[in-house]
Design brief:
CATH class of chain B: Alpha Beta
Strand order of the largest sheet of chain B: 6-7-8-3-9-10
Distance between the termini of chain B: 32 Å
CATH class of the largest domain in chain A: Mainly Alpha
Radius of gyration of chain B: 18 Å
Number of helices of chain B: 11
CATH topology of chain B: Rossmann fold
Number of domains of chain A: 2
CATH superfamily of chain B: P-loop containing nucleotide triphosphate hydrolases
Number of strands of chain B: 10
Shape of chain A: extended
Oligomer: heterodimer
Number of strands of chain A: 5
CATH architecture of the largest domain in chain A: Orthogonal Bundle
Shape of chain B: globular
Helix content of chain A: 55-70%
Order of helices and strands of chain A: HEHHHHHEHHHEHHHHHHHHEEHH
CATH architecture of chain B: 3-Layer(aba) Sandwich
Number of helices of chain A: 19
Structural class of chain A: mainly alpha
Order of helices and strands of chain B: HEEEHEEHEHHHHEHEHEEHH
CATH superfamily of the largest domain in chain A: MetI-like
Chain lengths: ~450, ~270
Amino acid sequence: MTKSLYTEDARTKRRNAAERRFKAYGAIAIGIAMVALVILLTSVVSQGIGAFRQTYITIDVPLPEAKLDKSGTRDMAVMSKVTTIGYAPLLRDGLVNAIAEAGIQTDLSDKEIGDLISKEAPATVRDRVLANPDLIGGTDRFTLLADGRIDGYFKGRVTMASAALDKNTSPGKLELADKLRDAGIMNVKFNWAFLTAPDASDQRPEAAGLGVAILGSLYMMIVVLVLALPIGVAASIYLEEFAPKNRWTDVIEVNIANLAAVPSIVYGILGLAIFINFMQFNQSSPLVGGMVLALMTLPTIIISTRAALKAVPPSIRDAALGVGASKMQSVFHHVLPLAAPGILTGTIIGLAQALGETAPLLLIGMVAFVRDYPEAYSSATGLFGDPSTALPVQIYNWTQRADPAFVERAQGAIITLLVFLLVMNTVAIILRRRFERRW
Amino acid sequence: MEDMYRMDKAMNAQQDTKISARNVNVYYGDKHAIKDVSVEIADKTVTAFIGPSGCGKSTFLRCINRMNDTIDIARVTGNILIDGEDITDPRVDPVQLRAKVGMVFQKPNPFPKSIYDNVAYGPKIHGLARNKSDLDEIVERALRRGAIWDEVKDRLLEPGTGLSGGQQQRLCIARAVATEPEVLLMDEPCSALDPIATAQVEELIDELRQSYSVVIVTHSMQQAARVSQKTAFFHLGNMVEYGVTDKIFTNPEDPRTESYISGRIG
């Protein structure tokens, strides 16, 4: 009496059920992860996308000689004595004129109308006038930042109800802003300044940008790459291919694995103690930040490089040694090229990790408010020695500010950081695909 | 007639010793892998090492070009003389030695580079070619000697890894002879090949005998009988018997050899 193959016996049924259950668990796990990712991205994008759009006012600003150059000689020393406080009334006059020309009715006072313009705007006008003194005496067309509250109103952050309780703005100003937009004087445009401008003070969130932070992060990545890649690869090649396998190399190996797990803030303390206090490098400089991040990235690079070297089949080493290549020739001519995709991937993942790291940078003073673009090299501070900040630190910094406009900026900065990380990881994948060879 | 010719050839060769191993012992950590092996290998002869798996024949082969140096736990004692020079002497640079003693491995292992670069690599690092046309000539000669020239001459720049298994192994042989070695070590060169590719490689080995002293490790006794003039039988790290191939296979002296050949052990 043999059993039919058409019916499952009890044991097979149980086994198949277990397999189906396991697949379902896997699918559920992936589902949860995907939902979390989608929630994260929607929340960040919906809150942060506003940072990439900004409200601008386009008006003709009168530039009377009597106010801007009392001497009439276009002497730079005289002209630069007029501060932004001297320029602010001119901007207000320009806006009042534009409102009158467009035939817009408003019962706001001139001073209140002036509040619609950002406190950053006079500096824009002043910079252009000082660069082109010929403009004095006439009028010129400027595209100026609108006040942060007005900007927030167009983006939905500020409402009539919230404006009624806000001493920095009023429902009347928002109504005027609506009319200005309808008249084409005020409009919302893509905000390049968010990526290029430096940070701004608490009073003018509309002017705050990531320029300094992106530059600082870029400098640090250069320092990390230049320090961590050669040191990491050289260390891995030595450990993997040349070092005798004994107790000392075991100890080193265990410690490298441990270093990879050390909390990043510990590296910050180390950087503070050694690079700043002992070696007297500049505080807040990308050089110190880069060195600290390089230390932090080294274990990652070493571990991934060693894994890549291990993955090269030993038959390739035998083949090279068999035709009389020296150990070094076999490593550099054959093993290293085959391990290169893995090494590159590890390095880029290490860099991406370093790019998103905040804690150690707080300890070495990169959390400071920096408005001047850092120089790559200057004679006073040396290579990468200018004070600077970094992307993740800038995010941390902005989330601490009181004005909700800065929260939007912080979310926008997160989007920027995520885009950079995405680009780096994509490059890693492309490089791996490009250089991967079959054997 | 053929047998007579072979015997004659083997006898002549015996006078001309190429490699002479004396009391060679190899230890892998605590394991005593090769026990006191002494053997004289003749020039322009194919010498086969046979024996069951793990008997140490590959290990002994790897002593002859000091490939065991690359294994940390391996320790070799005794002397191996090539042309009267002791290669275990600390003054001998293994890199120089391996240019003189080429090796072909069990699994075809071409570099993941073009066919041309595979063969040209050895001559390049040893500085055997003065210029490009010199190198071209060396590559062609090596590929012809590897009996693969006609198959690959039109696609020298294609990757060597794209060839079939048998072609890859002949490419590896071409790569090994490109550096003009005097001894060619082959570690089960046909174990990954089909019978047709095996026949081609065996034919090639017979031709290579004209110019080199060939030492081949094989699992196939038929292969040893077909290609070699002298055969050594290894068992549990000992070299049990060494002699003219026909004698080993027809009239072995040691009972262990006999039982291995007749299929009772191994």
